[in-house]
Amino acid sequence: MAWTKYQMILAFTLVITGSINTLSTKWADFIESESSDGQVRQFEHPFVQAWAMFLGEFLCLLTFKAFYYYLRRKNDGSEDRDELVKGNREFNPFILFIPAMCDMIATSIMYVGLNLTYASSFQMLRGSVIIFVGILSVAFLNRTLATREWTGILLIIVGLAVVGLSDFISNDGDSSTYSRNNVITGDLLIILAQIITAVQMVYEERYVAGLDIPALQAVGWEGFFGFSILGVLLVPMYFITTFPPFNHNARGVLEDLPDALVQMKNNYQLILAIIGTIVSIAFFNFAGISVTKEISATTRMVLDSVRTLVIWAISLLLSWQKFHYLQIFGFAGLLFGMCLYNNIIIIQMYDRLHNAYLRRRDNNDGQNEVIINRRADEPDC
Fold this sequence. Notes:
Number of domains: 2
Largest sheet: 2 strands, antiparallel
Mean pLDDT: 85
Strand order of the largest sheet: 1-2
Structural class: mainly alpha
Helix content: over 70%
């Protein structure tokens, strides 16, 4: 079935805003600005960036409330029919506290990792969440994975190994943006974050999915909890001294919010990058929810893979990283494994080709049978 114009706009918005979210965060990492101690440094404040992301998610809750009260004022019951706001709105928000904390920890770790490695690797390595979701689903949701799903997980592992190998090989030390130790540390942190994200997804499937909470509202409440708790944690982070490669701010502490604000004041590009993170994550969540409702969750997953390709291409174009041919094989392994695990495209394409082969074989057998019968009917000379 052909997509409508609205669905095409949603798909385009999902890919573009998702790409902008990662690229704007990485762009901020590269921007140099005068710090609070007078030295010019790159903007390395991953927890502040994560805080900004949760602010973007919190905006989804404000949007939900505004849209809900707008529909409610019509007095025609449209608030119970519209896809964005219909559902169970009378629930205890604290049921979303645990997934919000998982999201906060995972996002913070991922942004620390993003400081140390490439944007494309960051996006590709996020695909490892499927591995941990599959394993935790078997352990805690009593799921039984099909052979297709285990094969998909195996291909994802191979793809991740190839991505890590390409990062290691393409990084040639002093002439590269990052040291090999930083890249390896960053990649491992991103994979660690996916374990926590998998815990969040399994929890949500077990305790939240059946409550029929409007998705925009769920994202908004998780954003509210993440923004609030992380905002409080920024205070003790200001006094925790850390070690390389995590101490590149003015005071060498885990996070320095005043220093981040000074750097933003001294370079308007940082303000643009942070606003890009906030706005893009809000629109990305809206577009993702809408794509799931208007088309399907599998389409959202395919579009997310397209986002990875866009980020990779732009990173190469901007010379944020070097090209290595192994990246192609790593991305292909990840994409093939994700499609196989989610039963998208691969099985359907195989069935279509197999059925076409059977039809062609049957037609050929029928034609051969006609020819043989004709020869059998011919009189002997």
